[in-house]
Amino acid sequence: MTAAHGAGVEVRGVSKAFGVDGAKVTVLDDVSLTIGMGEFVSVIGPSGCGKSTLLKVVAGLLDADSGTVTIDGESVTAASRDKKIGLVPQSPALLPWKTVRENVELPVRINRGANGDRALRDPAELLSTFGLGHALTKYPGQLSGGMQQRAAIARAFVFDPAIMLMDEPFSALDEMNRDLQRIALLDFWQSNRKAVMFVTHSVPEAIMLSDRIVVMAAHPGRIAEVIDVDLPRPRTEEAYATDEFRDLEAVVRGALRAQTEKAHV
Fold first, then answer.
1. Which of 49, 84, 89, 126 is positioned for an S-S bond with 216, CB 3.0–4.6 A?
2. pTM of the predicted structure, to 2 decimals
C-alpha cells in the first residue's frame, strides 16, 4: 500500500441535507474520512449514497450543514484560493472553440493572481504525458471521448495541486476505452503521487487504482466499510488476472451487495 505522509484531506463529521423544513432529505450523515498525501482512495456505493455530494463538499462546491473539511491543513476556501485542489468532473467540459492546449492553459490564464512563485506544470508536457502531444492544436470536437477526458485530467494537473478530486471521470466511456484511460491515469499518478479522492461505480476500477476503497451506505449516506487494497505497485493490466485481484473483487462486491440490500429494505 502507498505510504501516505501527512493529511491531504481531512473530513470530520460532515452532514448534508437537501430540501426545506419537513421535506429535508439527509444525504450525508456524520461522514469522517482522511486521505493522506500520496494516497489514492476510491469512494463507491449504491446510487444515491452521497458519493458525488461528498466530493462536492470537499471541493468547496457545496457547503456542509455541519462538520469540517481541511485540505493540506487549510480550510477549503483557502485551499481553493491557493489552487491546491484539482477537480475532474464527469464531463470533460472543454471549450469547443479553443484548442486542446488552450483548454489546458486556461486555468493559468484566468487565475494569474493565484500563480505567485509556485511551480506550474507545462501544458504541452502534461498533454504529452497523457498521450496527447500530437493533439495540441486540435479542437475538442476532433478528439474521441477518451482523449477529451485525458485533456480534462491534464488541465486539472496544470497548477500541480496538492489533491485531485475525480467524479466518475470515465463513466461515459465504453469498457475498452475506460480501461485504457484508467491505465493511463494510473501510470501518471504512479510517477507523480497526489492525494486522490476518486468517485466510481466500477469495482475493478476502484481496485486497480486505489490504496483504499471506501464503501458507502445509503439513506442517509455514511461510511459503511473501508477496504485496504494491498496489491503491489506499480500496477499494470496483468493485475486483473491475479488471484489477489479476484479475491478483493469478491470482498468489495460483497460489501456493496450488503449495502444495496439494506438500501432497499
1. 49
2. 0.89
